Amino acid sequence: MANFGEGWDVFCSVLFVLLALHDVRSFSPQTKRNVLLFVGDDAGFETQVYNNTVCKTPHLDALAKRSVVFKHAFTSVSSCSPSRSAILTGLPQHQNGMYGLENSVHHFVSFDGVRSLPVILKQSGIRTGIIGKKHVGPESVYQFDYSKTELDGFPIMQVGRNITLMKQFAHEFLSSTDPRPFLLYIGFHDPHRCGHTQPQYGQFCEKFGNGDPGMGKIPDWVPTTYDPGEVIVPGFVQDTPAARGDLAAQYTTISRLDQGIGLILKELELAGYTDDTLVLYTSDNGIPFPNGRTNLYDSGMAEPLLVSSPAHTERWGHESNAMASTVDLTPTVLDWFGIPYPDYTLNREAVRLTGQSLLPVLQREPSTGWDTVYASHNLHEVTMYYPMRVVRNRRYKLIHNMNNLAPFNIDQDFYISNTFQDLLNRTRSGQPTHWFKTLKDYYYRPQWELFDHQADPLETTNLAGDRRYASVLSDLKEQVLRWQNATNDPWICAPWGVLENSGLYKEKPTCMPMDNGL
Amino acid sequence: MANFGEGWDVFCSVLFVLLALHDVRSFSPQTKRNVLLFVGDDAGFETQVYNNTVCKTPHLDALAKRSVVFKHAFTSVSSCSPSRSAILTGLPQHQNGMYGLENSVHHFVSFDGVRSLPVILKQSGIRTGIIGKKHVGPESVYQFDYSKTELDGFPIMQVGRNITLMKQFAHEFLSSTDPRPFLLYIGFHDPHRCGHTQPQYGQFCEKFGNGDPGMGKIPDWVPTTYDPGEVIVPGFVQDTPAARGDLAAQYTTISRLDQGIGLILKELELAGYTDDTLVLYTSDNGIPFPNGRTNLYDSGMAEPLLVSSPAHTERWGHESNAMASTVDLTPTVLDWFGIPYPDYTLNREAVRLTGQSLLPVLQREPSTGWDTVYASHNLHEVTMYYPMRVVRNRRYKLIHNMNNLAPFNIDQDFYISNTFQDLLNRTRSGQPTHWFKTLKDYYYRPQWELFDHQADPLETTNLAGDRRYASVLSDLKEQVLRWQNATNDPWICAPWGVLENSGLYKEKPTCMPMDNGL
Hints:
The structure is a homodimer.
Chain A: H1 9-12, E1 34-40, H2 58-64, E2 68-74, H3 80-89, H4 93-96, H5 117-123, E3 127-132, E4 146-149, H6 156-161, H7 163-174, E5 182-187, H8 241-270, E6 277-283, H9 298-301, E7 302-308, E8 319-325, H10 329-337, E9 343-346, E10 349-352, H11 359-363, E11 372-377, E12 388-393, E13 396-401, H12 412-415, H13 418-429, H14 439-443, E14 448-452, H15 470-486, E15 497-500, E16 510-513
Parallel strand pairs in A: 1-5, 1-6, 2-8, 3-4, 3-5
Antiparallel strand pairs in A: 2-7, 6-7, 9-10, 11-12, 12-13, 13-14, 15-16
C-alpha cells in the first residue's frame, strides 16, 4: 500500500492499483477496413448537428445521418498540441509528455518511447497519412507514411484552410495503389482564430481565399457570411457586438471546414472506400472564447464527436448519451483494425490505455460504464503554467487547480481578440460586461471547484466549500487521484507535496508534504 | 521603439536594442590548441582553492597554481540540465530552450536549431569528446564525436563517479591518432547527492567504490573521510548535526572528484597535451543545501571557476575579481580556437552570444567591463515552475520572482536529504532550526528581491520596498529587462503581461497588461 504522507491518508487505500480496463487481444488486423479522422481546430458546437440553427454545416449534417452523434464527448485536454497528442496516443498529455504547445519557444514534445497510433498502425501493416495541421512532436513518435503538414514545410494556411489543396492531397493519398488498409488524418486549421498572426485575413481568417482583392481564391469554397445580429451567443460568452462579430467570422470558417469535409468525403466515395471506412469527426479543444479553450470548464472541455461506421449501420442518425473522451479514439481505431492495445513501459512505469473503444456504442446505447471522463492540463504556451486535473461524471465535475494562487493566464491569440479586448475594456471602464463572471474571478480560482451539472450547467456555483457536498467532494478527489495514479501523473502530489518514487520509495511511491502552511 | 504597454513605460526606451558585444571574427582555427573542461555536479567552494581548510583538494589546488582563480563567477542558472545547456551553448536556458531537467518525465530539450559548442567545433574541424554526466538534449544539438555518458547507456555511477573508469576513457580519447585539435568535456557526477536514488551508498554516494563490503572498489580512489564536527558550515546552511553529517559526506565525494581531476590531468600530461591545452574547472549550480541549488541567491548562483591556459602564464596562481558567468565558457573556448562566434536566427529571433571570452582576463585584471552578470531560471523538475530573472553587479542583486504567489518548490533529491528533513522536523516541532531564515519565508517570496551585497552578503534584507533604493531598483529592473530582450526571453512580459510579437506586433513586440489587479 502506498503511503502518501500526512494528509493523504484518505487516498492511500486506492493508490497504485492499476486500472485493468483491457485485456491484450490477439485478433489479426482487419484487411478491408480504413479510417478517416477529421479534427477541427478549436471547433465547437456551432453546427446544425448540435442544434445550432444558424451556422450552415450541411456536410457535417449528412455525415451525422450516417453516424452516432455523441452528445457528451469531452477532450482530454483543452489545448491544441496536448489534445492532438492525446488523440494520437490514447494517453493524457501528462502521461505522453506533450505538456504544452509544440511550436516555437513552447517546444513541448512527447516522450521518445511513446507508442503512438501511427507507430502502432505502421507496425501492423496499416498505411498512415496526415494532411493539414499536425502540431505534435517528435517526428519519430508521430511519423506518418504520407505527410502534408506545417511540419513538412507547407504553410499552415494552405494545408489547413485551403480546402481545394486539402482535397487534392486527399485525392493523392486515396489514389495510391498501395494495397494496405489506411488511416488518413485530416487536421483542419479552421475554425481557429487568425487575428493574432494573420490579421489581414480577419479575426478567424474568414477572408482567406474568399476571392476579394488580395485575399486569394480557394476554388472549391463557396463562402457563407453571417450577420452578427443573428449568431447564437453561447451562455459563457458575453452578448456584445464585439463577441457577436467574432462569432459571425467564426461561423464563416466553420462553413469552410464543413465544405472541406464534404470534399474529402466525396474523394473517399470516388476512391471506392465509403463502405470500408470508419469516419470520425471531433475537435481538439473548446472554442477560443472566454471560459473556452485552455479551460476545463465544459465550455472548454465538451467536444463534438461523430462516429460513422459502415459496419455498424443500426444506429445511424442516433444520438448517444455515453460520456466519451478523446482518449477513446486510439482504442476505437485499434479496435476497428483488430490490433491489440499497446502495453509497455515508459519512464519505468507501465503504460496501458485508459480509454475505451467507441465501437460497442455504435451497436447499442450502453446502460453502464460510460458515465465518467477525466481531463488534465499543464501548460498551453510555455509561460502559462496552470496544471489542472478534472473528473466529470454525469452529474458532477471536480476541478483541481494546482497553481491557483497565480492568475489564470490569457494566451497570445485570445488576448488580442475583439472578444477579449471588449471584456477587458468594459471591465476597465466600469461598463457592464454582459458576461456571466468577472475577469477577477476568471483569473483567480480556488484550488478545488465542484459543480453540480444538474442544477448548474454553466458551472457558476462552486460547491467545494459546501458541507452538504463533503462526501461528493471526497469521493471525486479520491477518483481523480486514482486516475492520476493509473496514468503515471508526475503532478500526482502537486501542489503541496513532493513525489518520492526512487531509491527507498521505488516500490512505494509517496507524496511527502512540504508543510507549506507553516 | 517597442511599446510594452501600460506600466511598462519606464522600460520602453531601452528595449529591443540588441546588444552588440562581439564582432564576428575571421581568424583561422588554431591547430595546436585543445580544451579540457571539467564540470563538477553541484560542486561549490568546499576546496582549498576557495579557502576551505578542511576539505582536501590537492589536485584542484595544483591546477589553481597554473590558473587564474575567479572569485566572482556565477552560473547562468542553478539547475543541472539548464546550466549544462548554457555552458555548452553560451545561451541562457530561456534562450536555448532547455527550461528544466532533461531526464525522465521532465523531458526538456534545447531547440533543434541551437548551434551548440560541440556542433560549432565539429564544423570547425575540432574533435569533441564527453565522458560522464551529459544531461542535455536533443542528441542532434549536443553531439560529440566521442561519448561515454548516461545517454549512451552507461550507468551514471560508473561514468560519473568511478574515476578509474573515467581515467581509462580519457586515456582512450587522448590516445587517438586523430590529428585534429580537441575539446574533452568531463562531467563528474560527484559531489551530487545520491540518497534519493542510491541510498545504499550514503547521502552523497560517499561509500560507492570505497572497498567496504558490497560497496565495490574504485582502484584509483583513496577515500578521505571527514569528522562532521570539523566541517565548515556555510552561512546559508543550519549548523546542526544533520547538516554537518551531510557536509562531511559531501567532502568525501569532493575528494573523489579532486582525485579524478588529478588522474585525468595526468593522462593529459602523459599524452603530451599539457602545454597545448586550455583547462577549465567549474560547476553547474550551487550546492544541494537550503538556499543553494535551484535558487538564484548567491548560495545557489556563485560558482568555482579556474581557467588554466598554457599560453597565458603571466597570471598563473592569481585571483581575479572579474565577474564571470558560465555563459562566458562558450565564447572563451571559441576564442581559444580562433573560431567566430555564432550569429543566426532561432524562432525568428536573432541569436548572438551575450557572454564574453575570459582569455583577456588571463592576461591582465580588467578595470572595467566585468561588473555585471545575469541569471535566469524557469523550472527544475517539470512540476517546479518558478521563473526567476536576476541581475547581479558588484554591489547589488535584483531577483524577479515571476510565480512568487505559489510556494517555491523543493526537489525530490533535496527533500529526502537529512539536511532538509532536519529543517522540516525542527520547524514542525518548534525547535530552533539554527537556520538564518524560516521555511515559510523560503517558500513564499516577494515578486522583487533587492539585496545590497556590500552590507548584506547573505542576502537577508530585501530592499525592494525601501524608498532609499527606489532608483537602484528602477535601474536594475530596466537592466534585467534589457537583458531579457537581448536574449529573446519568452518570459519578458511575465507574470502580469501577455507578449504579442506576431501579426500586427511582429515589428514591435509589446507586453500587453492582463489587468490582473482588477
